[in-house]
Design a protein that fits this description.
The protein is mainly α. The chain has two domains: 3-60, Conserved Hypothetical Protein Ylqf, Chain: A, domain 2 (Orthogonal Bundle); 66-91, no CATH class. It contains four helices and no strands. It is elongated and about 50 Å long. The protein starts with a helix and ends in a 6-residue tail after the last helix. It comes from Agarivorans gilvus. It holds the Pfam family DUF1040. InterPro entries: DUF1040, YihD_sf.
């Protein structure tokens, strides 16, 4: 599967539940609302897939949960993080 197709599918998957919550809005209104929530102040023509995907992911997690993409790199303790940063495998 091409990367572009994967991004489209991911965007649709993330967008669907948000749009179902407000079915009276059209797609452009939903996208504008998401952009506004993300603090995007530029023209809509400059809005990227990355901004939409990131904001939709942030909407789906709790306020106390780790930011998507960061959890995989998180270490529970400082010593493990330091050793990993130095390239020493920790088990």
């Amino acid at each position: 599967m091409s990367m572009q197709l994967h991004r489209i599918e991911e965007l649709i998957e993330l967008l669907t539940p948000v749009w179902k919550q407000q079915p009276e809005l059209n797609l452009v209104e939903i996208i504008a609302q998401i952009a506004d929530q993300a603090g995007f102040a530029k023209p809509m023509s400059e809005l990227t897939d990355d901004i939409l995907i990131y904001q939709l992911k942030m909407l789906s997690i709790g306020k106390d949960e780790m930011i998507p993409g960061i959890a995989k790199d998180c270490e529970d303790d400082f010593k493990s993080a330091l050793l990993k940063a130095r390239g020493i495998k920790v088990d």
